[in-house]
Specification:
303 residues; elongated; 2 domains; 4 strands; alpha+beta; Alpha-Beta Plaits
């Protein structure tokens, strides 16, 4: 039964990742490319190669990520996981399919560069956010960050920022070779607008997922509820001893710390087992430890 649950959960995660990859690929193949725009990451680099050489973006994306995967395989081993390969494969598939099955300017935004940059940033941000929520990634910068961190500790945000600014900055030289681009500087600015909107969208999605809830459950059927939460939802439960102030009778309380997005599932379990249970749900500022955020303590440097 546990294996079936794990397979069902993995299938759900892979499907949601694929949906995110479809949104991500659509934003690049049908919005950014039609507006002759540019962005960051391996997709931006693949598009830069397309502008310079004519190599289709989908093929360039596959080549770039394949090289990164091979390098990562030899340097750090297969720690990037199956979901990363799944994300790369899904994006590559649709980056090659969309140009063949959809009109070049499906949304009619080719002449509106600003709106194209904003919409592409939102859609690609939602797509990547969906992938990250399922524990996967879209490759590219994620793999590069793992390779770099093998030799030197550099924050993921700095690596992303450096790569995006470099890729978009290099488009200056490519745009000058394209007679269809009137103002290379304007296109570069739109590229920075896109990655700004993209980063904000991803952060917003992940911030909602990182919010945590503290749930207290008072029920005579506390053992059944605790067992279901632990084995079906795979979330830890602490059983506390309590005493009713009015009755003086001993009672058991369940304490559950969970992500905010998981609270509805826990409440559903409680309701199905004991509709008369008393439940208290509160938001907490931070939860640190295994399964949540890492404990970070900042110390002041001595002069």
């Amino acid at each position: 039964m546990k294996q079936a649950i794990d397979i069902r959960r993995l299938s759900k995660e892979l499907i949601l990742m694929h949906i995110g990859c479809v949104l991500y690929a659509f934003s690049w193949a049908s919005i950014v490319e039609s507006a002759n725009g540019i962005g960051g990451g391996s997709s931006g680099l693949a598009m830069l190669v397309q502008y310079a050489t004519g190599l289709p973006m989908g093929i360039g994306f596959v080549i770039i990520n394949s090289v990164l995967l091979l390098v990562a395989l030899f340097i750090i081993g297969p720690s990037f996981g199956f979901k990363t390969v799944w994300g790369i494969g899904s994006i590559a598939l649709w980056l090659n399919l969309f140009p063949a099955i959809l009109p070049h300017d499906l949304l009619g935004l080719a002449d509106d560069k600003l709106l194209s940059a904003i919409l592409a940033g939102v859609l690609s941000g939602i797509g990547v956010g969906l992938c990250l929520l399922q524990g996967g990634s879209t490759g590219g910068t994620d793999i590069a960050a793992m390779i770099i961190n093998k030799f030197r500790r550099v924050s993921y945000g700095r690596i992303v920022m450096a790569s995006d600014f470099t890729i978009i900055g290099c488009s200056w030289f490519v745009y000058h070779l394209d007679p269809g681009v009137d103002n290379a500087l304007t296109m570069i600015i739109y590229g920075y607008v896109m990655i700004g909107v993209f980063s904000y969208t991803v952060d917003t999605i992940l911030a909602g997922n990182k919010q945590s809830s503290q749930i207290f459950v008072f029920s005579r059927r506390h053992a059944e509820i605790a067992h279901s939460i632990t084995h079906d939802l795979h979330r830890g439960v602490t059983i506390l001893d309590g005493t009713g102030a009015y009755t003086g009778h001993p009672s058991k309380m369940l304490l559950v710390m969970c992500r905010k997005v998981e609270s509805n599932n826990i409440l559903r379990v409680v309701r199905d087992i004991d509709p008369d249970a008393f439940v208290s749900v509160g938001s907490v500022m931070g939860v640190y430890g295994k399964g949540f955020e890492a404990i970070e303590v900042r110390t002041k440097k001595k002069n």
